[in-house]
Each structure stands twice: as C-alpha cells, then as structure tokens.
Amino acid sequence: MATGRTHRPATRSRGIPEATVARLPLYLRALTALSERSVPTVSSEELATAAGVNSAKLRKDFSYLGSYGTRGVGYDVEYLVYQISRELGLTQDWPVVIVGIGNLGAALANYGGFASRGFRVAALIDADPAMAGKPVAGLPVRHTDELEAIITDNGVSIGVIATPAGAAQQVCDRLVEAGVTSILNFAPTVLSVPEGVDVRKVDLSIELQILAFHEQRKAGEDAAQTAATPPRVPRTTGGGRKGPDGDVPAVMPA
Amino acid sequence: MATGRTHRPATRSRGIPEATVARLPLYLRALTALSERSVPTVSSEELATAAGVNSAKLRKDFSYLGSYGTRGVGYDVEYLVYQISRELGLTQDWPVVIVGIGNLGAALANYGGFASRGFRVAALIDADPAMAGKPVAGLPVRHTDELEAIITDNGVSIGVIATPAGAAQQVCDRLVEAGVTSILNFAPTVLSVPEGVDVRKVDLSIELQILAFHEQRKAGEDAAQTAATPPRVPRTTGGGRKGPDGDVPAVMPA
DNA sequence: ATGCCTTTGTGAACGCGTGCACAAAGATGG
DNA sequence: CCATCTTTGTGCACGCGTTCACAAAGGCAT
Known about the structure:
homodimer; 254 residues; alpha/beta; Rossmann fold; 7-stranded mixed sheet; 3-stranded antiparallel sheet; 10 strands; 39% helix; globular; disordered C terminus; DNA-binding; NAD (chains A, B); DNA-binding transcription factor activity (chains A, B); Tscrpt_rep_Rex (chains A, B)
C-alpha cells in the first residue's frame, strides 16, 4: 500500500534553503506595497520590519539570490520585486484548478490574491452534478468527469483540493494521473502521492489547535491547573500503572 | 512603528518543543480515525505512516508527553486520544469569534472541523451593516460595534480574522484590547501585536507561490535533462541562476 | 520460569536555521 | 582625492529539530 511519501528530505532546491523560499513571498508582498507607493529604495532594516522578520535574516535570504543591494543605500524596490518574482516563478502564468466548490472552494475562487500573483484559475471542478454550469466567481463550475480533459487541455500543473476529506485522496490520484505535480490541500487528510509530486497542506483546524495549546498554557500559568487535572501517570517501573481500558474518560470523537 | 513581535524565540513551553506541538493535532486526527474504527492499539510505525511522519519522530514527540506506550505492543488508542487532547487543551470549550464574513469567513463558519475539536463559534462579526442579522451557518451576523461586548460577554480568547488586508490591523487591535490573546489571521498582512499575544497566519497566496517555486524548478530540471517534452519553459535555460544584470527584461528600473 | 520476539524510549550525532558582529563596499561631502 | 558615514554581505557560533541505532521493557509461547 503506497505509503504517503510527502516529505521533502533535503529539498534545498538549488542552494536556496526551504526556509528562505517560504519567506520570499512575504518580502515580495512588502516590496509590492512599497512599489505602489513609488518608494525607490529600501534598506534591509525597513523591509525587514515591514515583513515582520529579522534584518540579518532578510539579508542572508537575499544573499542566496545574489548581490542585489547597494551598500550604503539599500535595495532598489522595483529591481528586487522582479528578481524575487522571477526566482519564485511568478513571471510566468500558472493555470490552476480548484476541485471541490463548497464554501471554501468558492472563497478560494473569489480570492483576489491569486490573479495578482501570476496564478490563473483555469477551472472550478465539483462532483455535484447540480453544481455543473453554475457560475462561481465568474466561471462556470465543471463536473468531475471533465477533470482529466481540463488538466491536459490547459496544461495545468498545480491543483487545489478543497473537497471533503473522504474524496481528497481520490481527487488527488486523478490530478496526479492527469499530470498535476503540485497540490495545495485543504482537506484534513494526509495525501499519498508518488515521488516528484509536491504537496502543501493548509489545515484550519490544526492552526486553531496549536493556538489552543498556547492559550491553555498562558491560562495555566495564571491559575495553576484549575480544573481537576489528574496528574500525569507516575512512571513507576513495573508497577501496575495505567489501566489501558480502565480510566480513560469519555472523549468525544471527531 | 511598533514592530510586531510575533515570533516565539524559544517558546519551549513546558519542555514540549514547538515542532512537536504542531504535529500533535496530526496525530490526534489519525488516532481519532482509528478510534472510530474501534482499533484498540496502534504501533508507532502504523500511526506514523497514518500521520505522514517518521516513526522515530513520532516516538520522540510522544516521549515529551510521557511514557504512554507499552513496549512490544504499542499505544492504546483511546488513552492516547485523551492525553493529546488534554495536552492541547481540547478537553475544554474554546469560544471563538470570526471577524469578516466574506467568502472565506462564511467558509470558516461552516467548517465542521471546529466544533468537533472543542471550538465553538461564539459569534460572526462583520463591518457591513447590510450583513447584520443575516444568518450564516445558523448564526446571525453581528455588527462590528458589538465586538467588544461579544468578546467580554463570552469570554472569548481566540479570534479569527478573515477581513480584507486593510482592515486586519484595526480589527486585531480591537480584539486584543477587548481581551483576545490568540489570533488566527487569514488576511495577507503582518499583524503587530503586544507581547503575550500569539498570532498564527494562514496565507493562501503564499502557499501557492511556494508551490510555484518548486514547480518551476522541476520544470527547469526536466528541460535541462530531457529536451523531449518541455512542459513549462523556464526563463533561462540551463538553470544559470544569477545573472545580476545580464538578462533583465523591461522591469529594470534604474 | 525462561528465552525469544516485538516495540518503545532515548542517547548521540548531525544538519539546518538563526542571530551576532564586523569587515568590505559604496555613497557623500569637503 | 580623501575622510567619513551608512548599509550590505557573510563568517561564525549556537540552538533546535531530525534521524539513527540500540538497550531496556514488556508480552507470549514453551
């Protein structure tokens, strides 16, 4: 059974660290804002605060792209916008398909941040026949049957999955089979893909759970363990510890 | 300009590394699925593949929580579900507010993954007076004027921002002022918050840009190796990366 | 009870990412 | 042309996260 090999062990792509790549869009956004205000140049310090990062980190990130700054002055905004765009591959047009036009899929279709960054929604696809033909964000929803044809006809290599969890893997398989090699997954499932296919996942629930953890910790510091907290099981070696099926409280499942 | 101190330098909370905390929801989801199938125990290897991670990493993650496994057998599913839920703070009820009921806000309001994990949508808030009172996901949309009252009345400590970028910082300030200490930000902006407030951001456009980077790189490698079927034409063939002032097209400013 | 087999828990090594601090590079003014 | 000042680019050290590899621990059969 094909185990999901999703991780990229040392995707240090071509000398550009993954962490740096993840920050480039952040810099690009800040630079675009400066560009719209017709700011000609910007120092690493200014740009760093605008992007919410450390200035040393920003300079090191840029050093992976090349020496695009001028000492004593800073960086030319327009020039840097272009260099980062090129490095990220945004100077070309990326057709994407969005599969699963529920609330989230519709929100994505209407999201303006795509078109402005070189991404073009080639098609909206849904499995519900009743949705077919309905216009969403100015595009008619296509039925899943057409998926393969849409992919090949438009040369789509990036797919967005916004289906329920149960359908995600099946949709993913079809996308990959049709030629998609990058997938943005919003369904709360671990996708299994063959080598060479990139998957990034966005899970709304997971983000909230991480926040809850820190929130609990903050609250716990104020009032030390309010609710009756059964203290962690003392790891007494050999002692009759946790009853595997005895003391487990009622926890609601999904 | 008060720089937003959003990063957590060494938030090694109570000995639990941040990276581990980020994976706990993943484990929890896999365990919940097993629980629904009434699977009594699971080995680290099985659970790891289900969650899409390395088994050694999973065991080390769990070791931060305590010794909850049984050697030679594995982990008790129900017991582990409870322990992780407790550690994440999901055994209590977390009221959240969603501000900005556009396409995305509505999608979030309808998202089932919240309620099932201990999160309760206390209110939907929007600045548009025309939206006020309209039911979305079974809840009437409230106007922004009521924001502070809603926060305090419901004891909300987690807020979700799904407004346009321009309104995000203002909304954020009001949330924080009213007592919110954890924020999930979907607006494409860097939020500036005081010490003690956690911010996590989800940026759809950034994820796509990261995918585009890898996609471009993959296309470049293909084109370099086999000139058979160049799917996407890379900007510069041969992948020579830096050409500081060589092939720069029109965008060049100064 | 004893030995074998399975699986956990973890010590240790390694690699990546971050931040400091400073020398080199260029602009600017006299 | 030289001195000074600003800002970049980076060598270096440190800490976190990941992975390996194995001893310890428990179950199970005999």
